[in-house]
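re: ur question from earlier - yeah i can do the single chain one, its not a big deal. heres the input i used so u can compare w yours
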Amino acid sequence: MAGERQSANLADLLERILDKGIVIVGDVRVNLLDIELLTIKLRLLVASVDRAREMGIDWWEHDPSLSSKARTAQSERAGDDGRVEGGADRELLEENRRLRERLAALEAGSTGSGSAEAGSAEGAGSPARRAQEKEAGS
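and the output i got, formated as C-alpha cells:
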C-alpha cells in the first residue's frame, strides 16, 4: 500500500511541475588567487510543451534536426533564392562537384581534354575556372 501511495504522489508532483513549470538556476565559478578562470551559468527549465509554448518557448519547432515542418520550410527557402544551409552558394556546390569529377578523371589517367572538361565547359570563362587552369598548368 505504501508503494502505491508514493508513486501516486510522485505522479502528482510531476504533473504539477510540468503544468506550472520550474526553473533551476546555478552558477559555477572557478577562481585561482582571486583571478576568475572559468564561469559557467546553468539555467534549466522543466515544463510541459503546452506550458513552454504559453511562455513563448518553441525552439524545437524551428530546428530542422527535430522537426519535419522546419526541414520542409528550409528546403522551400533554399529553392527560392538559390542558397542552401550555411550560406553556401549552389553554384559553388555544383562547381565543386564538377571539379571532383574532373579530378577523378585525371587521376584515372585521362588527358584532361576528354569528357570531364566537356561537362564543365559552361564555366570556362569564370575567374575560378581560370585559376584552376593556371594551377593545373603549373
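The radius of gyration is 29 Å. not sure if urs matches, ping me
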